[in-house]
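Q: Could you fold this chain for me?
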Amino acid sequence: MFGCVMCNNPDETLVRASLCSKCEETKKIIAIYGIDRINEALLEIFVREERPIKNRVEAITNRANIPKKKEKSASQ
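A: Sure. Below is the predicted structure, expressed as structure tokens.
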């Protein structure tokens, strides 16, 4: 009786398999599309560069008329 080797899901105890049901589904998707394409998609969807994040925060702040926080100067 072991946990999943990929996600360490404590809710699903495994006896014969090394992957839980959700990770097994992920493995099937990787088999269909390939690991490189899946990694590209994950990076594009979940990992964002700093500039787009700042742009989004600025847009939301401007729409809500929230005053900008003063940035601390390097001398402080």
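A (continued): The chain has two domains: 1-32, 34-67.
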